[in-house]
Every structure is written in C-alpha cells, then in structure tokens.
Design goal:
The chain has helices at 7-32, 44-57, 69-75, 134-153, 180-185, 238-258, 308-325, 349-362, 377-383, 409-427; strands at residues 61-66, 85-91, 99-105, 124-125, 128-130, 156-158, 161-167, 196-199, 207-212, 214-223, 227-228, 275-283, 289-290, 293-302, 330-339, 342-343, 367-371, 389-391, 406-408, 429-431. It is of the alpha+beta class. It folds into 2 domains: 7-212 and 341-431, Zn peptidases (Aminopeptidase, 3-Layer(aba) Sandwich), CATH 3.40.630.10; 214-339, Alpha-Beta Plaits. The strands form 6 sheets. It has a 6-stranded mixed β-sheet, sandwiched between helices. It has a 4-stranded antiparallel β-sheet with strand order 12-14-10-15, with helices on one face. β4 and β5 form a beta hairpin. It is elongated, with a radius of gyration of 24 Å. GO terms for molecular function: hydrolase activity; metal ion binding. This is Succinyl-diaminopimelate desuccinylase. Belongs to the peptidase M20A family. Keywords: Cobalt, Hydrolase, Metal-binding, Zinc.
C-alpha cells in the first residue's frame, strides 16, 4: 500500500474540493436533466455522451460501449429494443501501477406521482439537489469524477491509473446485463487489469458497504380447469389453489424467514432478516368463469448465510407437498433473476484507505454495512473474482426511488473529499510539474 499522504497534501485536496463543489453540482444537474428512465431504458446514449464529454474535457481517454441489436435482445429483453450505451474513461498512470475503477449506473427508476419539483429539473433548494437519480445514483457519478479532479487540481499527480464508468440497466438487474455485467464479460474489468473497484451507490456517506443480500425474482403458476361460475364443482379453481399455497407459505415459511438475521448490519435495519413477498397476482378472465390459471410474482431476499439452492428448495417443498395432498394441484415454477449474497473482507487496502479517509473528514469510524438489495458488486466479486470492491458514495439509502428524491450538497462534498484522499493514498501521488 502506498505511503500515507502528507498532511499538507490532504489539506490541499480538501481545500480544492471546496473550490470545485459548484462545478460538481452543475455536472450533476446536467445528468439529472437527461431522463434516462428504466424501464424501458430511455436516453441512454445521451446520458453516456454527456458523461463522456465531461471526461474527455478533463483529459480522459473515453470509449463508448454500444450494444448491437442482437446483444440488446439477449441482455435487455425488457428494454423495448432501445439503444444501450455505456461510457468508459481512462486516465493512465505509470506502468505496473495500481488501477482504481469508479463505477456508477446512469439509469433511474420511473418518476411516479406527487413531486413538488420538476423530477428532471435538478433544482437546488435548501442545500439539496432534487431530481430522479440525485441519490440513486447520478450523485455518485458526479462524486467519483470530481474526487479525482480534487487531487489533480490540488497540484498532485497520481501514480496509478484511474478508470471511470457510467453503465446502464442496473435497475433492471438480470443474471447478465447490458451494463456492468457486460464490462466484466468483455474483460474491461478483470483481476489482471483492475486492482480496486468503488461503486458509488448511496449507502450513507459515513458507511462503507461491503456486500449485499441475495435475491430471487420468480413466478409461480397454478393450473386448473375452466367451468361456468354457476357450476364450480365441474372445474378446478387455479386461483383457489394459489390462495392455498400463499396461505401455507405465510403460515409455515415466512415466520422462519423472519428469524434469520443477516450476519452483518443492513441499511436500513428493517431489512436485516430474510424475506419473501408476493407482489403481483393474475388469475381469471371473467366473474362467472372458474379460472384455469393463476400466477404470482415473488421477491425472495436472502441473508448472507443462505444459499440460492436452499431458498429454492423451501418453495419447491411446499409446492410438491401440495401436489401430493391437494387434488388437482398442478404448478410451474420460473425464475427471472437470481443473485447469491455477496460480502468482502474489511481487511484490505481498499477498505482501510476509505476507513482512514472517513475518519479524517467526518471524525468518526465508518460502519461496515450490507446493502438491502443486490447491486453491480455481484458481477465484480462473483463473476470477475475481484475481492477489493466496495460500495461507497454520497446520498441516503432512504432517498432511493422516492418522490422528491434529493441529495444533500454537503454529503456530495464530503464524499468527494473522502474518495479523493483514499484514491491518493491507494495510487500514490507526487507534486505535479
């Protein structure tokens, strides 16, 4: 690990960060005004170009990774064929020096009703920037870009290489995807070329996130036999079969899940247990017809000691048990998405540098926390096999996906300082020419 920064270098970085916060906020506002909403994945090329043009202006080598029509169909099946473009910037350092890769996703969830400000306006009010994606997570992209600028404009030259990426489709997940998953598959992020990775999601500015819970998104369908509503005994009611299944899960499985605690603290704490929720149900065609089909979509969240195989088996056991004892019970089980829980060690140079930087800027020891949902860390750790990957960025997790989403400018500034000091320590610096 490089030598600890000199006190005067830290102070220069901090003062420079203070001087460029207005530029960082302006950059963020520009991103917020591009409605890169997913689904379906609107305005991705425009957002990638906006980020890429800023990186080019700051001296990065910039590459755009655009998907072909065939790749779109395979990796973004719910994307309505809209174009998908990722942006990748590189600021080379000395040969054989460490490489730090900062990553953020530029897609945002749909807006919803009830906003008190323009959701794509980037309004600044009472020290906060408002807009869809301000916290989750265009604020993170602004922070990662200007953290590096704080080092450079302080007159310090980084010895290692910095990479910046803005990717698509994090919000639509997928076992593979057109964003971070694609970068890993193409080898742009790989153990032989990438030393450290920081994904700038909002888990609160005084936390370092070391992993995420697991997830299965799936659909269960029950089958019956249609009949007239006046003679239900002549049919088999698929909806009633589904209701019986859901009732058994609620009585027998859900209480067990609530007893399973995550080994590491989750933000927010209300997500600290395993869970299962049934969130979409469809069945029947008419009030006087017994339905021959019913489907339910479920969301199963796994704590860090659970496995995907065991989570599936628990559902299969109930389904198979009902097939054995309930006359006419037939079902089909499908999955749309599955991700195992992820957790990395705190005993690494990456984590310890960020810990030291947070202590220096905020005056307190950070929490080592777990994300309630899955994120792009899974591709880095599970697929690329890179353990030195953390989630750290500005913003409160409680702001994600809400009406009037916003980011405190003070948090943006603090995260810029923290990421800058940690990066300078990890890559090493010397006085510029």
């Amino acid at each position: 690990m490089p030598d600890i920064l000199r006190p005067e270098d830290k102070q220069a970085i901090i003062q420079t960060a203070d001087s460029l916060i207005e530029e960082a906020v302006d950059f963020l506002q520009g991103m917020l005004r591009i409605p890169s909403v997913n689904p379906p994945g609107a305005a991705y090329p425009e957002c990638a170009s906006y980020i890429g043009e800023r990186l080019e202006a700051l001296g990065y080598q910039v590459e755009y990774i655009a998907l072909s029509a065939a790749e779109n169909a395979e990796l973004a099946p719910y994307g309505e064929g809209l174009p998908r473009t990722n942006v990748f910037g590189r600021l080379p350092g000395l040969p054989s020096s460490p490489v730090i890769h900062f990553n953020g996703h530029m897609d945002v969830v749909p807006v919803g009703m009830g906003w008190s400000t323009a959701p794509f306006g980037g309004e600044v009010r009472a020290g906060r920037v408002y807009g869809r994606g301000a916290a989750d997570m265009k604020g993170g992209i602004a922070a990662q870009v200007y953290a590096v600028e704080a080092i450079r404009r302080a007159g310090l030259q980084l010895q290692g290489t910095v990479e910046q990426s803005g990717v698509v489709d994090e919000e639509s997940t997928g076992n593979r995807n057109a964003g971070m998953g694609l970068l890993v598959e193409q080898g742009l992020i790989a153990p032989e070329r990438t030393t450290y990775i920081v994904i700038t999601e909002p888990l609160n500015v005084d936390n370092i996130c070391l992993g995420h819970r697991g997830a299965i998104w799936g659909e269960i369908q029950t089958f019956g036999r249609q009949s007239h509503g006046s003679t239900p005994a002549q049919g088999v009611n698929a909806l009633e079969h589904m209701a019986g299944f859901i009732d058994e899960v609620a009585r027998c499985l859900m209480p067990q899940l609530r007893q399973r605690q995550n080994r590491y603290p989750v933000v927010p704490a209300t997500a600290n247990t395993a869970s299962l929720s049934f969130n979409v149900i469809q069945g029947g065609t008419h009030v006087n017809s017994v339905p021959d089909s019913c489907s339910v979509a479920f969301d199963r969240r796994l704590v860090t000691d659970e496995t995907l195989a065991d989570a599936r088996q628990e559902l299969w056991n109930i389904l198979e048990g009902r097939a054995q004892i309930v006359p006419g019970f037939r079902y089909e089980y499908k999955e749309r998405y599955a991700a195992a829980p992820t957790w990395v060690s705190a005993d690494t140079p990456l984590v310890q540098s960020f810990t030291s930087a947070i202590q220096h800027i905020l005056g307190r020891t950070p929490g080592y926390v777990c994300s309630p949902g899955t994120d792009d860390q899974r591709f880095v750790v599970q697929n690329a096999g890179i353990e030195q990957c953390i989630i750290y960025g500005p913003g409160e997790i409680t702001q994600a996906h809400i009406v009037d989403e916003s980011l405190a400018i003070a948090d943006l500034l603090a995260s810029i300082k923290i990421m800058a000091i940690a990066t300078a320590e990890l890559l090493g610096v010397q006085k510029g020419d």
